[in-house]
Amino acid sequence: MSRQKERKSYGIYTYEDGNTVRRLEAVPDYHEERNRRKEERRISEQKRRRRRAARRNRERALKMNAGYVAFLSVCVMAIAFASATYVKLQSDLIIRQRAVETLQNDISTLKLENDAAYKRITAAVDLKEVKKQARRLGMKYPSENQIVHYTIDNADYMTQYSD
């Protein structure tokens, strides 16, 4: 067939075949429409049933019996006790840290004072004068038989007993 339009005659009507032909509207299929509406009703009914079931489940979940309330009360008390104990331990820890800091400051102050006093004493003592006074009083250096050597085994002090 060529690309030219073809004319057909059906009684008094002329049917033209080509790119300008309009399609005839088909008769609506009422069965499809009815089936579509039934499907929509079925889906909406399912949604409604699901909503009711969900509402019933929520209501059931919100109901609390005596055992459940007692269990929750015990849990809340345990958490409150643990929290109070934790807060108390934290405050005790902070108090002890501050006490340790205070003691450390006191120790450093006392060390500084001790070092200053030691320097004053050593600066005030003239060793040459002490040696001179000791000789004047008759003191002399000890001899070898007067010196006793001690060994200390893993102890930081020793006790000396006189003969």
A few lines on this structure:
With 163 residues, the chain is mainly alpha-helical.
Could you explain how this protein is built, in words?
The chain is mainly alpha-helical and 163 residues long. It is 63% helix and 6% strand. It is built from 3 helices and 2 strands. It is rod-shaped and about 165 Å long.
Write out key terms for the chains shown.
mainly alpha; 163 residues; 3 helices; 63% helix; rod-shaped; two-stranded antiparallel ribbon
How is this fold's topology laid out?
Layout: E1 6-10, E2 13-17, H1 30-62, H2 66-124, H3 127-136
Antiparallel strand pairs: 1-2
Name the helix and strand elements from N-terminus to C-terminus, one letter apiece.
EEHHH
SS-derived structural category: mainly alpha
Head-to-tail CA distance between termini: 148 Å
The fraction of residues in strands falls at 5-15%
Number of helices: 3
